[in-house]
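for the record, two folds in this file. i put them one after another cuz i was lazy. first one right below, seq on top, structure tokens after. the second one comes after a little note so u can tell where it starts
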Amino acid sequence: HVQLLESGPALVQPARSLSLSCPASGRTFSSDVMAWFRHPPGNERAFVAAITCSGGNTYYADCVKGRFTVSIDNGKRTVYLAMNSLKPEDTGVYYCAAKRTPYSTSRFQYDYWGQGSQVTVSS
């Protein structure tokens, strides 16, 4: 019922910036949470950032806090992830995800997922 179509893939050099987008269709934004996860090589899928659709509250993993910014455009029904000062450790497959409130950092709590976008940070 819900489709999340995210942008990508991308290759970017360290210290550069990259923005990801994820438009949503077939869902309402009221009382919803949208999030970003990433799956780095050799590790499990982990939480990156989240935002509430109505209140605009944001949440970040410690490793990206201060570098990444999650935002939402309710008119376009799109969530964004602006990534600055990228590091090789940021490499992985990035997924957008959606769930009903409340906010959660657990990938098991999200009902809808984008197709995944490979982000490679390398020289």
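(here's the note) second protein begins now
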Amino acid sequence: QVHLVESGGGLVQAGGSLTLSCAASGSIFRMIAMGWYRQAPGKQRELVADINGGGGRNFADSVKGRFRISSDFAKNTMSLQMGSLESEDTAVYYCKARLYTDFTTWNDYWGQGTQVTVSS
């Protein structure tokens, strides 16, 4: 079994900063990529940022220049440093890991989500 746990969510003022962390554990053969997604009420879940084993990163246009993603795949962890937060960043943030559980089998796994609320 693979499980992911997010932490670091909370209430923050507009313009402030917050850092989210994700830790994956369980039957992990090899991590492929990890990413952060968010879902606001009435909206579909969207990619915020992700990072792969080669250090390649993708960001949503709305967070470029404000958010930074980092990972330590040896520890199966990932962090999202969020700065200059805006009310539009309010959402439940989910950690996703794409990983091999054996040599040939990979799947996506999701955390339970952590609420980020930005007060304007």
